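Need tokens for this chain, all 158 residues.
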Amino acid sequence: MLFQQVDTAVMHGESLPWVPFTPYADNVFLKYFKLDPIRGEIIVLMKAPIDMALPKHHHSGTVIVYTLEGHWKYKEHDWIAGPGSIVYETAASTHQPEVVSTEGGDYMLTLVIVSGDLIFVDENDKVMAIENWKTALQRYLDYCEANDIQPQDLTAFH
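Here are the structure tokens for all 158 residues:
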């Protein structure tokens, strides 16, 4: 593809499904917007309830999290992120997220931009699983197939 063929594009959220973040948490849902095979980047909305329980994880690249609704934190930090805040995670950071408040709603909602691998580890920092754009794409395609949804090409450059 020539660079002249790459143009500004829009992804409409209403056309994309909320996909459960299985096998890690059936009550955490992801709406994938972009799964970039070139930069290894994922752009996703994540919604999680007050009782979210994700394993501790390590990032090989940077992560940017913009909070839209609710409050959350990492168990390893004393700050709390709320609506309008941005959390910038450096490469090689390790933490465990928890939802602190959903402000009367059922879910906390964030926009997340992940570069590189998300490496889930146990209490001894032993690797349990690795997530990236490829595993996200497979989760999305599997969900679409199981629910008779026509998948969109989230990897394409339009």
